[in-house]
Write a structure and sequence with these properties.
The structure holds 2 protein chains of 2 kinds. Chain A is mostly helical. Chain A is built from 14 helices and 4 strands. Chain A has a two-stranded antiparallel sheet with strand order 1-4. A two-stranded antiparallel ribbon of chain A has the order 2-3. In chain A, a hairpin with a 2-residue loop joins β2 and β3. Chain B is α/β, with parallel strands linked by helices. Helices cover about 35% and strands about 25% of the residues of chain B.
Chain lengths: ~350, ~525
Amino acid sequence: MNRLRQFVNKAGWPRVIIGFFLLSLFVAAPFAEVSLAASIKDTLVRFGMNGVLVLSMVPMVQSGCGLNFGLPLGVIAGLLGAVTTMEMGITGIMGFITAVILSCAIAAVLGWGYGKMLNRVKGEEMVISTYVGLSSVMFMCMMWLVLPFKSPAMVWGYGGSGLRTTITLEGYWFNIIDNFLAIKIGDFTFPTGLFIFFAVMAFLVWAFFHTKTGTAMTAVGSNPDFARASGIDVNKMRTISVIISTVFGAVGILVYQQSYGFIQLYTSPLFMAFPAVAAILLGGASVHKATITNVIVGTILFQGILTMTPSVINSFLKTDLSEVIRIIVSNGMIVYALTRKTTKVKS
Amino acid sequence: MVSEQVVLKMENITKDYYGNRVLENVSFELKKGEILGLIGENGAGKSTLMNILFGMSVISETGGYQGKVIIDGKEVNFKNAFDALDAGIGMVHQEFSLIPGFTTIENIMLNRESLKYNFLVEVFGSRLKTLDRTDMKDRAEKAISALGVKIDPNMLIAEMPVGHKQFTEIARELDRKNMKILVLDEPTAVLTESEADILIQSLKRLSDLGIAIIFISHRLKEIIDVCDKILVLRDGKTVRESPAKETSIRQIAQWMVGRNIEEKKDEVKNEKKLGDTVLKVENLWVDMPGETVRDVSFEVREGEIFGIGGLAGQGKLGIPNGIMGLYEAGGRIEVFGKSLEMNVPVKALKAGMAFVAEDRRGVGLLLEEPIDWNISFTVMQAQNKYLKSFIGGLVKWRDDKKISELAKEYIKILDIKCVDEKQPVQELSGGNQQKICLAKAFAVNPKILFVSEPTRGIDIGAKKLVLDTLKQYNQKYGTTIIMTSSELEELRSICDNIAIVDEGKVAGILPATAATEDFGLLMAGKVDESKEKVSAQ
């Protein structure tokens, strides 16, 4: 009993409850005539698709900039990289690599400006970043139409100008990472490539926070005055963290797209921030502390529920509840975490 | 007057925090009109005891307590602070909880305002009653006069001197009708001596009115002056309960720390040999809110312990903060003969200086991080130590093993009480936190060490240890130390020379052996006379 309580305390109630819920969904799956193997595969793939996006929250949280509601900015950098590469006609693994390189460059520039802006609004980062996300997406809605892309695979069939809302990656780098070293067992496929990719990215973040700069960044998030007294340039550290978050956001969306199979333009980046924020909070992160474990646990739970509810619950209830549950879980989690922000025990 | 009627009895109070026993079988009685002095080092369990009495939620959240709290012969178990208020217990906290933009009256009356009926009440209920300002004024004035002080009831809290704020807080508690027990947590810590005297007088007056008072203070003289009875706690246990008249300050101090505090006075100072000038400050100004420095010049020689004293708000704290680049500053600073670029903290650190800030929790520590991080962070960032280099220095990897070793070493040297080097510093007591600040500065191996208010808010035992450590460090490594403190005696006990700062300027620099009156004169701003004395020497 005592050990159980310890476990609950350590893991936190939200994770225990959602964990059990998820488990019960898996148990119920066979009764709903849903294939368990396919369900697990879907959960794993979704984890790989979203993992890097969730990971991109960590640097900004650690440096005290709060949750990155401005993730759409990174996503836009990723989209720009992807469509530019397609315009150049590079396909296959080279195409994906080119897209990553281009996106990172664009994300670094955008992140630098975004970081400078967040340095002027200390204490209000999360509100401002939400607006940065919104306004950059709206700005790009115009730009997608205006930018001089010509490739027939991407522009509207009629008129011949302006990018389509959805662009297929078939023939470019569709599933290029998913299928890398994938292991097939019957109708179950393990997306090895996705996991290797996520592991590498997670390792990079983990390693970064073990370096001198990463340590300084954590200190800035923990107590900026302390950091300044130790000779740290607080604003520089914050800017670096925002750049890293934005770059990871760009890479994250590229991984997401290659698995999904489509590049989604226009307002779709708006719908990327909340699930990522909700996932890391669900994993146990707070507004000013996040670890890789939070990312992994949170993404598995959140994506697991998203995968399982449409198939399992819908087949029982005969109505589509998955969207409702997704919204309740993601928004509820964000509200829960934000209200807990100030509950620090004063000694 | 003390009567025989017992209003409060706490019996065998025991409390654990996560298996860590902070109170053990503490019992005491409080009679009507009695003043009880509650004394103990930081972490002795005073706050926990008061939290239990006051029904604070931290207690029930951490598993409650054992023992009985009996008020007026009835056992009580408060669910929250409101229950305690209803039972007639008032508490004045160390930090003010007043609304700056409200007047004295409004603060005293908050949520207990006198109300007047108007017709809207019939429609919308009693929430729409209007305030009866005249009655409120009468009540507020009555509460203030019970304290025997004069405060303008219409003054805004924001414009008040600190002492008046403290009195306003007490008056607010007094206004409660059934007020029986008043708890004062370090009420005199922020007051000047004369204000503290008035407060003491007020307390005596309250006790005559039949209110029992629990008085917590570090200033033992006040305790002796005002209390009828004292209760000394150490490590969660009652060490002594005794009538105040039968004790002395020295005795209480001994009970508190559990060891003899050596007599420090009359100690013959070894004549120290001082080296060349290592720090030269010319026409320094610092824009630090509340501690503005206008025009300060002084020189410090190698191996010297240089004191900076003066009253609060006169700018003494601004000097180290300005030199270390933490607040906007100007003027000229020479370190080892080389001019120092100002307003860049990293330059000051690289020039071989380190700073133990007066604002421990705000600037000095990473409260949520473990001890080893706190100690090693500055030296790691400023001097690239405790790092492993990879790929030709491109990647600088934190060396966690060496960092823990460093922390373990200082935990041993400075006797820091903690579970291990991975414990977050916010869980430590004030004295131990201060030791960590010192360890952080020592780890940099500074040639010049600035220490600001090193003993503020820590108990006698830790105080002595901190001062001794500084002294030893100075003797062992020849480190030049510049110490800022508001306690003159403390400065005189370890410094060679002391500068007194008044209105942002140096009023005079005297050797520590100079007479107390001379320092007093400098602090009082009588620059002319004392300058003559300095030149006469």
